[in-house]
Design goal:
By secondary structure, this protein is mostly helical. Helix content is 72%, strand content 3%.
Length: 342
């Protein structure tokens, strides 16, 4: 129960205005925005009290840069991407071997300096792959944490809407249930721009509808319980914006090209060294290339939100919906909107 009525500091940040003080709450009820905040027209001509969004929000919708060829192949199939990466490295290794055979002489001693250079190149490639893998895993964990935080914020809002009671509180709680299902679809959606755009429009429309119900409720009941509900709903919408931003950013094409370029140069150098010695060693080279390819594909899979088999688990949203059904079965009075009979 402490989550329903904990103190709320007055804060104004990007997204909806956080109402924890009398000035902020009165601004919501009267419709006058404090300094730094302006009205932003939303879907359907509705107005919500919002601050100015940073420039990257529009940039994330349009896409910061064109997709590279490798990202397009990854969108089609991760197995096809793995095959392309493997074949490119094989080609680089064979070209290096052919150059080494042409430059080498049967009676010449082995060039020890070439081995030192190739070993350094392979070590640098392994180091960069490790750093990039850690970076991609961090991005993946951030998306998971954002999903969990958003589900918790929605759950807190639902509890506070139930605490408000009356018809308005029950209606906001019902809308939050639909909103949770919508966010569940967003997290699990495939990489389809038209479907994602439709989900974003529905999200904005539902946020506007929930906020209008809250405005009407706040004008009827300007009390701390409604203020707490307003704060938690604001956090829900902020979390939705953060989740959208996290899902709009995949691995940078420049980073993929750097990794692929380093891998091809390293494999070409390795083939060159084998050519100088006159020993192709294709089977051990193929095993090494398969390992490099697996790491490269895993980096892309972890970094891309909607590609491959590694996806953000939407389980927190399902758990939230299941907990509400359990609460309603245990306490049927939570959804009662009429007067209680003695």
């Amino acid at each position: 129960m402490w989550r329903l009525f904990r103190p709320i500091p007055p804060i104004v940040e990007f997204g909806l205005i956080r109402a924890g003080g009398s000035a902020d709450f009165s601004a919501l009820v009267t419709g006058r925005a404090p300094s730094g905040v302006h009205y932003r027209s939303s879907i359907g001509g509705r107005n919500r009290l919002r601050t100015r969004l940073p420039a990257w929000s529009a940039q994330g919708r349009k896409g910061a840069s064109p997709m590279s060829l490798l990202v397009q192949i990854a969108t089609f199939s991760m197995a096809a991407l793995a095959l392309v990466l493997f074949l490119l490295q094989v080609a680089a290794r064979e070209i290096g071997y052919a150059l080494g055979r042409r430059a080498g002489r049967p009676d010449a001693p082995p060039a020890e300096g070439v081995g030192v250079v190739i070993t350094s190149m392979l070590g640098l490639l392994a180091f960069v792959l490790g750093l990039t893998l850690a970076y991609a895993n961090t991005r993946f964990q951030e998306r998971r944490q954002e999903a969990l935080a958003e589900a918790q914020a929605i759950g807190t809002s639902w509890l506070r809407a139930q605490a408000v009671g009356q018809t308005s509180g029950a209606e906001i709680a019902r809308l939050l249930e639909d909103y949770t299902r919508l966010r569940l679809d967003f997290v699990g959606a495939p990489n389809d721009p038209s479907a994602l755009e439709a989900l974003e429009r529905r999200t904005g429309a539902m946020q506007s509808e929930i906020w209008e119900r809250l405005v009407a409720l706040a004008r009827e009941r300007p009390d701390p319980v409604v203020a707490a509900l307003m704060n938690s709903l604001n956090e829900c919408f902020d979390r939705a914006m953060a989740q959208r931003f996290a899902f709009s950013r995949g691995p940078a094409p420049q980073l993929l090209m750097l990794l692929l370029g380093m891998a091809m140069v390293s494999m070409g150098g390795l083939g060159y060294q084998f050519g100088l010695r006159g020993r192709p060693l294709r089977t051990p080279s193929a095993l090494l290339l398969a390992m490099w390819t697996a790491v490269l594909v895993l980096i892309i899979d972890l970094g891309a939100p909607r590609l491959g088999a590694v996806r953000t688990d939407p389980a927190p949203y399902r758990w939230t919906l299941e907990s509400w059904r359990v609460d309603q079965r245990r306490c049927p009075l939570a959804t009662h909107t009429g007067p209680l009979k003695s």
